[in-house]
Amino acid sequence: MKISRFASRFDINSGIVQLMDDLGNALSENKDMLMMGGGNPSHIPEVQQFFHDKMQRVLDRPAEFAHMIGDYDPPQGNKPFLEAIAELLNTENDWQISSKNVALTAGSQAGFFLLFNIFGGECIDGTKRQILLPMAPEYIGYSDVGLSNDLFIARKPDIETFDDHTFKYHVNFSELNIDDNIGAICVSRPTNPTGNVLTDSEVEHLSQLADQNGIPFIIDNAYGMPFPNIVFLDVTSIWSDNTIFCMSLSKIGLPGTRTGIVIANEEIISIIARMNAVLNLSIGSVGPTIAHDLVSSGEITQLSKAIIKPYYQNKSKLALELFHHELAGVDYYIHKSEGAIFLWLWFPDLPITCEILYQRLKKRGVLIISGHHFFPGLESNWQHKNECIRVTYSMDENVIEQGVKIIAEEVKKAYAKSA
Fold it and tell me: What CATH architecture does domain 5-47+305-418 belong to?
């Protein structure tokens, strides 16, 4: 069968395709699979009850229900929800934005597809521009969204190690040479997959570099403040006319509604709205309808601070304790858990690749994500890429306990066979 170049980009070996395929198959075919790879948020009872009650209130209001399922919203998104988001961010972060600075997308993944292809790829004048990822590893979902080859260029981080088997990545600013080929800078904060939170000084420095070069600075805030606020450090959120700040309803517990949120200057928001009209006609109303009251009242901030953040912080602590116990005697490091819902494990001089480790664990009923998928745009053949894995701690405690034990067993086997 002959297919287009566009279709050929959706390769079956894509990391995000593998991730979602494994996730879907495991949930439908193997109920005993220990899901320690995906990014699905936990089903937190208090949070789910809130959304259940809100949905019931919508069902009890015929006009609101009829609009939610029966009417198109504008391509920019549900206007009351856009206004509520702008007001919340102005209140929480002391920004000065309006609903004209906010657009919705069909999930954050779709939002990054739009943004990366706005600022990267072939330009009208025939030049080609790339998206700079200043510190790999970065989010697996970025890798394959480009409509042109070599959309990304990434830089290796500085690595700081500590005596307690932990480490932390830092931006290596000496390697960030920005030229006319760079169309935008992008970071996730907290970083998926590592749980790293870029410091305020790192973010400010990156913002200055973007301003100096006349390119946008994109911040993927899927796990950040003010919601879902899965951030374990005291940091500040920034925005300027040159910043594109991306959020989502997924990690507060509404991944099924596929609601992404983009905050940017009016010109960029207008482009996104036009692209939404062409690609989707409009953005779904279910997520904005369910979440509107939570956002407009500011209750979403309190829910995030009082329930969501401590829930995941306790999960992180448990997973760390289990890994440190089970991996005793192995040469390993775990990235400092500063946010998000993942742990990033590094096994120096691992005698097998992390992809082989992934396959061995899958056979034993444990799904993790091989670390090599998280380095889009990194040109160097860096051994470190094949020594890392990402695991989630969002699952039930018994799943985490069983999964950690099996992971540790397979890692120890790998080292033992090479001795």
Answer: Alpha-Beta Complex (3.90)
